[in-house]
Design goal:
It is built from 17 helices and 25 strands. It has 630 residues and is of the alpha/beta class. The protein has four domains: 6-228, P-loop containing nucleotide triphosphate hydrolases (Rossmann fold, 3-Layer(aba) Sandwich); 241-319, Elongation Factor Tu (Ef-tu), domain 3 (Beta Barrel); 327-433, Beta Barrel (Elongation Factor Tu (Ef-tu), domain 3); 447-627, 3-Layer(aba) Sandwich (Rossmann fold).
Length: 630
């Protein structure tokens, strides 16, 4: 038998490390509970810190450390300059390390309440969570909030690290009291797999080696718990799912569909279903940069070629035909709000699930969750870090699985349409089946027929501007001219509609969104009837005016900005509303204590402070003659 060479030994070592089980975990909890110090201790005690890193941390410890110039292990993780100067974690810091038994990817997440969205981001891909608690403070509101998010994101394996035990005299009573409070709360969230370990990240007690000072504790150290945690998933045994990220067509002879496999196994010859269109086909090849595969597994990025020339686009899901994903344009689910600007029901957002993007609205806010008591409370809006259960409506059908069954095809984010900022993250619970079974009935007499009968092209003239700018006066003058020209029109005036259609709405931001939505729906019906509809309503928010535009067909929506400066409107003040708003008698008054967002690219701009209503009406008619078939 020939001796093993150093090269062979090294290759065997590398292969062993490459095939080792990988555990993704997150550290979370309230601010200053010691998360970064704990990870730093894990890295330091595991001999996984290079000398140059250690030298740099020693230098930084003297300038920014919290240990009086001594080595501050938190600085191994807190990489942002702002974090080092403030002594807090802001961003999600990812670190990798390995032991003889397992490889790890750890996400150190911020504890401050305003950075909860970062914590949710880190938790979305984790298999296990370490929840830290300062032994001096016990279970804090942010501890409860983070645990609630962990439960919603499907993390059921929790290591409760009761930290800073050195500051409470290594007390067993303190540890057991905190453990009891936390476990009772976690049990309400169906988080029952909790391992509680008393630790001192500062001294290293029970982190890697058992603590001499806590001889009363006989459980695993933190590292032992991480190495032995059984978090094996059933993703390979789950039905096959792959979201199409890119249609690969390098030449006329090749057409493949690239993506990362979310669950299940796939082999050449397997039947598949293209969702949500429900088109069947068969896998021909599994293509990778290193050659074709005989089988592909979850987590692998591949390109699939299909036996049939079926229409497949980015965002589609290639799935198992025997257990396909659900499809719907309406569903119920949990939502974590992640932005300073409030979530307003009916406001249009973008929803991204997998690689698919669709227009979305929260149509019903069922309840908000009190993270302290887990009580369900009524709410009209959501603020930063609020957690709620709601109904969401999309502008098209999507393929999805309930989040509890598969994260990759059940989790989504909400995006602001203007800034493209992520404002929320959610988990689909179930489709609203009744809504999915509704279809529109087609009538023989349709919109084109009604327009031909009236010898005009139906459209909406949407007059927007401050109170007192002259919207209704101008709309009235325009309709008079349309009447003389023999056109069929109708005015939907915001104030008139508040006597009936919208009488139940106030003037909060959420109510204003719903006010515009209702008026836009009515305007859409009138356009379907073949009418020229004149809508006169302040409609202060750009998002809602864009929502109204999207309801109409191309060319049917004409945004008319009645542009009068605030001082002109306030000077006119025909109803005395500005005076009352200035004295506090009226709240949420546009232009005073509620914002107005001027249109960025209106179709018509009427300088109402400079010209008469008749001149403005003539300008609108001239536009209609030039742009719309009258």
């Amino acid at each position: 038998m020939s001796p093993v060479t150093p090269s062979q030994e090294f290759r065997a070592y590398v292969n062993a490390r490459e095939t080792r089980d990988v555990l993704r975990f997150i550290t979370c909890g309230s601010v200053d509970d010691g998360k970064s110090t704990l990870i730093g201790r894990l890295l330091y005690e595991s001999k996984l810190v290079f000398q140059d890193q250690l030298d740099r941390v020693e230098a930084d410890s003297k300038r920014h450390g919290t240990q009086g110039g001594a080595l501050d292990l938190a600085l191994l993780v807190d990489g942002l300059q702002a974090e080092r100067e403030q002594g807090i974690t802001i961003d999600v810091a990812y670190r990798t390390f390995s032991t003889g038994k397992r490889s790890f990817i750890v996400a150190d997440t911020p504890g401050h309440e305003q950075y909860t969205r970062n914590m949710a981001t880190g938790a979305s891909t984790a298999d296990l969570a370490i929840v830290l608690i300062d032994a001096r403070k016990g279970v804090m509101p942010q501890t409860r909030r983070h645990t609630t998010i962990l439960a919603l994101l499907g993390i059921r394996h929790v290591i409760l690290a009761v930290n800073k035990m050195d500051l409470v005299g290594w007390s067993r009573t303190v540890h057991e009291g905190i453990t009891g409070v936390y476990c009772r709360f976690a049990k309400q969230l169906d988080v029952t797999n909790v391992t509680s370990i008393p630790v001192s990240a500062l001294t290293g007690g029970n982190v890697i080696k058992p603590s001499v000072e806590m001889g009363w504790y006989h459980g695993p150290t933190l590292l032992q718990a991480l190495e032995t945690a059984d978090v094996a998933t059933d993703r390979e045994r789950a039905p096959f799912r792959m979201s199409v990220q890119w249609v690969n067509r390098p030449d006329a002879g090749f057409r493949g569909f690239a993506g990362t496999i979310a669950s299940g196994l796939v082999r050449p010859g397997d039947p598949v279903l293209i969702c949500p269109a429900q088109k069947p086909s068969t896998v021909s090849r599994i293509v990778t940069a290193d050659g074709d595969l005989a089988c592909a597994r979850p987590g692998q990025a591949v390109t699939l070629t299909l036996a049939d020339d079926v229409d497949v686009s980015r965002g589609d899901v290639i799935a198992s035909p025997t257990k396909p994903p659900g499809r719907s344009d309406q569903f119920a689910g949990h939502l974590i709000w992640m932005h300073e600007n409030a979530m307003l029901p009916q406001r249009p957002y973008l929803l991204k699930i997998g690689t698919h993007v669709a227009g979305a609205q929260v149509t019903a806010l069922k309840y908000k969750l009190n993270v302290e008591s887990l009580e369900r409370v009524a709410a009209k809006t959501l603020a930063l870090n609020d957690i709620a259960y709601c109904n969401i409506n999309l502008d098209r059908q999507i393929a999805f699985d309930p989040y509890r069954e598969l994260k990759e095809t059940g989790g989504f984010i909400l995006i602001d349409r203007y800034t493209h900022t992520t404002v929320g993250a959610g988990m689909i619970d179930f489709a609203l089946r009744r809504a999915s079974n509704l279809t529109r009935h087609a009538f023989t007499v349709d919109k084109p027929a009604r327009s031909v009968q009236k010898n005009q092209k139906a459209c909406v003239l949407w007059f927007t501007g401050l109170s007192g700018s002259g919207k209704s006066t101008t709309a009235n003058a325009v309709e008079q001219r349309l009447y003389v020209l023999g056109r069929h029109s109708y005015v939907l005036d915001g104030e008139n509609l508040r006597h009936g259609l919208t009488e139940d709405l106030g003037f909060t931001a959420a109510d204003r969104v719903e006010n515009v939505r209702r008026i836009a729906e009515v305007a859409k019906l009138f356009v379907d009837a073949g009418l020229i509809v004149l809508v006169s309503v302040i409609s202060p928010f750009r998002d809602e005016r864009q929502m109204a535009r999207r309801m109409m067909e191309e060319g049917e929506f004409v945004e008319v900005f009645v542009d009068a400066p605030l001082e002109v409107c306030e000077r006119r003040d025909p109803k005395g509303l500005y005076r009352k708003a200035r004295t506090g008698e009226i709240k949420n008054f546009t232009g005073i204590d509620s914002p107005y967002e001027p249109p960025e690219n209106p179709d018509i701009v009427l300088k109402a402070g400079e010209r008469s209503a008749d001149e403005l009406a003539d300008q609108v008619i001239a536009y209609l003659r030039s742009r719309v078939e009258m």
